[in-house]
Amino acid sequence: MSMPLAPEAFQSQFLSPDTPEINPLTSLTIAGQTRSILYSVELMSRQSITPEDAGCQDWLQEKLRLLGFTCHAFEVQGVKNLVAEIGEGERVIAFAGHTDVVPPGPLERWHTPPFEPTITDSELIGRGAADMKTGVAAMLAACERVLKLSRQLNHKFMWFITSDEEGEAEFGSKAIKAWLDAKNIQVDCVLVGEPTAKTVTGDTIKVGRRGAISGRIHVKGKQGHVAYPQYAENAIHKMAKVIDAINSIDWDAGSEDFPGTSLQITHIDSGEFTDNIVPANCRICFNIRYNHDYDMASLAALLQARIDAVVDGVEIQWERPCVPYFTHVDQHHSLIKAVEQAIVKNTGRFPVLSTAGGTSDGRFFASDTTQVVEVGVPNKTIHQINERIHISDLVTLEDIYTDLLADLLFE
Predict the structure, then answer these.
(1) 397 near 339, Cβ under 8 Å?
(2) 238 and 351 share a domain?
């Protein structure tokens, strides 16, 4: 059975004025179980394809202001960013997320329209169901439940939201971090709402991410006729030496904390093809995923030395650097332990601590003094046609966030 969900109709059906009051730290009634679903529907109904926000942050601002947050909205190069804050105290706890989503792809392959969220067989379907509008919705619902306790917050709580996570990420969380630095705000803990689970919410959390860097290499030769190779210099043949040199690097095998470093050639181009011409130019693109034992300088030096050993005069152009980060479990006021406790309370099991997967905006906030942990719904359908999650995973995430906030903000 499929049920399209217009936000107003959903709210009218499940969150009527007659809905009974509930314990803010439980979700045992219909109202408690559906508030994060309602908010997910509201956000998923907006076509916020990177860098568009489509009014998501305006809606979030209104909800957060009603809870007592002070909101600061700013735009950089067409990217909308939102910082919200409430409370005072020695420590700063933050939630980070994004309102943008990737394009839906071929519409005819979707079982239901991607921006008309639908529940089918207890699954919420639509773009952003996993990555990561449900994470934002669950945190908002959790905030409402925790702040209803009317207790004094012992620490400052902040939200960092951008519409540029799925794109180049140059004007989103990076700009938010610059805003924080300009105001000399030191954040102690950042919870990122990215989808991290493998099968069910709470089975896996991310405590770090590998770094990523892309590069381009251009090799020049001399054009000539293939019948007279002695008068030409084949750029592809020269590039083959380069590829062999960088592919033969003996990378680390990884550790308990990080997968091993790897390099992949992602594109090769020698210009327009003619079968009797020796090409004078050859270009390749590549990507490296690396752990926190490396940095940009050491990677650049290693690859340049390998290339210089086989071909002269070749330079690397580096692009889209994403630095790694890693949060240790034994840090003071451990965020990992707090997340684990909230997960165990709501699921009865400890999560796997992982650093697998691609990059995330957690890298912009992580530092020697800022702990970053990512916890969210299952990620098996992210960026896919018919992106979906089970409703129970969303409800569980809201409960985890609620208990985690109560622990962090009132301790």
Answers:
(1) no
(2) no
Looking up tokens 């905030």 gives 143
- Using alpha carbons, select from 196, 153, 174 the residue that is nearest to residue 351: 196
Is the domain of 21 the same as that of 120?
A: yes
Q: What is the CATH number of the domain that holds 265?
A: 3.30.70.360
pLDDT at site 10: 52
Catalytic residue among 165, 194, 393, 398: 165
* Residue given tokens 């706890």 in the structure block: 93
- CA-to-CA distance for 241 and 32, rounded, in angstroms? 62
Alpha helix positions (H), 271-319: 296-308
CB 22 within 8 A of CB 29: yes
pLDDT of residue 28: 37
Domain range enclosing 224 = 211-322
**Taking the mean position of all CA atoms in its chain, how far away is CA 304?**
31
100 among known catalytic residues: yes
CB atoms closer than 10 angstroms to residue 256: 6
Residue 378 DSSP class: B
Per the residue annotation, which of 42, 100, 166, 340 is the catalytic one?
A: 100
Catalytic residue list contains 165: yes
| Residue 238 burial (C-beta neighbours within 10 Å; 0-12, 13-18, 19+) | middle
Distance separating alpha carbons of residues 156 and 214, to the nearest angstrom: 37
Helix (H) or strand (E) holding 372: strand 371-374
What's the pLDDT score for residue 105? Answer: 95
pTM check: above 0.90: no
Amino acid at 236: I
C-alpha 375/C-alpha 386 separation (Å) is 22
Rounded to whole angstroms, the Cα distance separating 60 from 161 reads 9
**Phi/psi of residue 388, nearest 5 degrees:** -160, 160
Query: Among residues 356, 287, 363, which one has the least CA distance to residue 323?
Result: 363
Rg of the chain, C-alpha, whole Å: 24
Predicted local confidence at residue 20, as pLDDT: 38
Helix (H, G, I), strand (E, B) or coil at 363: helix
The domain boundary, picked from 322, 352, 377, lies at 322
Residue ranges of the chain with per-residue pLDDT less than 70: 1-33
Last residue of a domain, one of 284, 301, 322: 322
Got the DSSP string for 101-167? B-----GGG-SS-TTS-EEETTEEESTTTTTTHHHHHHHHHHHHHHHTT-PPPSSEEEEEEES-SSS
Backbone angles phi, psi at 149, to 5 degrees: -70, -15
Q: Specify the pLDDT at position 129.
A: 98
